[in-house]
Amino acid sequence: MDVRGKRLTLDEFMNTELSVKHYPEMEYNWATGVAITKFLKGLKNGKILGTYCNDCDRTVCPPRMFCEECFNPMNHYVKLPDTGVINTFSLAFIRTDATRREKAEIPAVIDIDGTSISPSGFLHLIDEDVSHDKIKIGMKVKAVWKDEKDRIGDITDIKFFELLEDD
Amino acid sequence: MTNKVAIIGVGIEGFRSSIRELSYKEMVYQAAVKAYSDAQVNPRDDVDTFISCEEDFNMGTSITDEYAPDQIGGAQRPVHTITGDGIQGMAAAYMQIKTGMFDIAVVEAQSRASDILTHNQIQHFALDPLYVRQFDATHHTAAALEKQIYLKRSNTSEDAVAEVAVKNHNNALFNPNAAYGIKATKQDILQSKMIATPLRSGEVSESADGAVVIVLASEKGIGNRDVDPVWINGISYATNSPNFHTRDWQTAKYAELCAKKAYEMASITNPKSQIDVFEIDDTYAFKELQHLEALGIYESGEAGKALLNGELGRKGSNPVNTSGGTIGMGNGHDVNGLQRVAEVVHQLRGHAGKRQISGAKTGLAFSWRGVPTTAGAIAVLGGN
């Protein structure tokens, strides 16, 4: 990997200067709340849920308890298809710990079908085995789910999105 | 136009020991809806500036301010964060309105203590890393060090300290927004577990979840709205020293410093006689007494005696923490200041129910940012 600057060895980095080290223990347990709890339970059951705002006549995914546009409550939950469109994507070669992947992971923002006005959805992955030159913005994709017994109510209950070949 | 600034809306969600059925965004939304209803404003059209008071480590998300706008109605509007207590955020909002460029401002603060599993570690992380954090002393130790010298120098009794906790737990029984209303007794406090001498667990405010949103407005911002304004007559904040070896341990110097400025703004020369209700930080029971003295309401050593004489109770001459304080409402960390402000607003509007101090016209809200800080913020509120 070519990076600019002088590369330090681990020994140089940790031991050449007198320094103080501290390794904090930071653990959190966020309550998922009304809307995201419904969303995660939906995923466990193989469904993608959204909410519909009556005042703005729009559907958003993931669901929200309130509409950030008109600030009114959103109580109408709707089941959305597990298909969508690639909003944008990247071939990612670096992990969060800065080590290099040989095979790219393909994060993509998926606009879920059935969301309206400005489409919405979530960050997920495209099947990393597809040929890179086939992936295009605007391409239709479909969720590939984990086996029902392995789903836990988590965004990773969807393994990845596969490309739909029809266009 | 005098360009005065008022609080025209208050919304509280909680406080409870934990609010697990709502996400933090949903919890703040609930408080915001109440505040906007009270203030007769539509956040999407009427509010000029939004301020959220939150800290990354408390929220568990770095650059957490990015997630602040939606739940306060600030999506794609001017929003910024104050990494500190709610009254510090209120001071920023006050100054923004004073520029004349903004007429309606919103301040939000919240606590999601129940989302944090390693709270002691997060607090410990606030200590200087080079030569303080090495000692395995909890953050409560800093409070114990402070209490030790405060009791000695002010000649305040442990009985007085325990009675602060008793008073505030009992006041909280009358506050529907309080998490820890308890019919506590002096013995409960004096026999509670020793954390670090001379600090016992019964004197420490327990964490709670909750949110407060307040709406501030200029006279122009109030316009024809059917609201009940409470004016901000003085507001300030100050910090003493971050270092354990250079700070003033005995007195709450930060309280003295910011009070001087706020009293000057509000033309207060004798706070004890000119102010009717006091909401004063009591994160640790002794802090209520120490703060009362630093704020010039009592001479050194006199606050504890006044408490034992009944002066600080709901029927006393200088009622302190009718809300229950942080001991009674629950320690909301960054939102403690707005807890204090909200109670003063209720009192001055005559909306405090069984806690109501009759004829209350002027109130003081004072917050401390908690251990290991020496930072405080004050607001003097009143009628016209």
In short:
The complex is a heterodimer of chains A (167) and B (384). Chain A is mainly beta.
Layout of secondary structure:
The complex is a heterodimer of chains A (167) and B (384).
Chain A: H1 10-15, H2 33-44, E1 48-53, E2 58-60, E3 76-80, E4 83-89, E5 92-94, E6 100-105, E7 107-112, E8 121-125, E9 140-145, E10 158-163
Antiparallel strand pairs in A: 1-2, 1-3, 4-7, 4-9, 5-6, 7-8, 9-10
Chain B: E1 5-16, H1 24-39, E2 49-53, H2 56-59, E3 79-82, H3 86-98, E4 104-112, H4 119-124, H5 139-154, H6 158-172, H7 186-190, E5 194-196, E6 199-200, E7 209-218, H8 219-222, E8 230-239, H9 253-265, H10 271-274, E9 277-280, H11 285-294, H12 302-308, H13 325-329, H14 336-349, E10 362-368, E11 375-382
Parallel strand pairs in B: 2-3, 2-4, 9-10
Antiparallel strand pairs in B: 1-7, 1-8, 4-7, 5-6, 8-11, 10-11
Helix pairs in contact in B: 3-14, 6-11, 6-12
